[in-house]
Amino acid sequence: MALTREFKESIRERAEIDAEFRMLLLGEGVECLKSGEFEVGKSLLRDYINATLGLTKTTDRSATLDPDP
């Protein structure tokens, strides 16, 4: 399982510094969904979302979406 965690961290780090990578990841996820490859598309979109949206805790202990990675 450590390999999966390192992969997710690598995706997040690359997405933080490379706007073109973010757009390609999103585009590839959408294209996979359009062509019927739902599992691959969902996985790519999940990676995109996890890499670009962070969750921050507010003072009332509820989670809110933070648009800045």
Quick recap of the structure?
With about 70 residues, the chain is mainly alpha-helical. The chain has helices at about 1-15, 20-35, 40-50; strands at about 55, 65. It has a domain at about 20-50.
Task: Please tell me what the overall shape is.
Answer: globular
Helical segment count: 3
Radius of gyration: 14 Å
Oligomeric status: single chain
* Coarse structural class: mainly alpha
Which segments are poorly predicted (pLDDT under 50) over 5 or more consecutive residues?
A: 55-61
3D architecture notes:
The chain has helices spanning 2-17, 19-34, 38-52, and strands at 54-57, 63-66. The two termini are 24 Å apart. The longest helix has 16 residues, at 2-17. It is mainly alpha-helical and 69 residues long.
Main attributes?
69 residues, mainly alpha, 3 helices, two-stranded antiparallel sheet
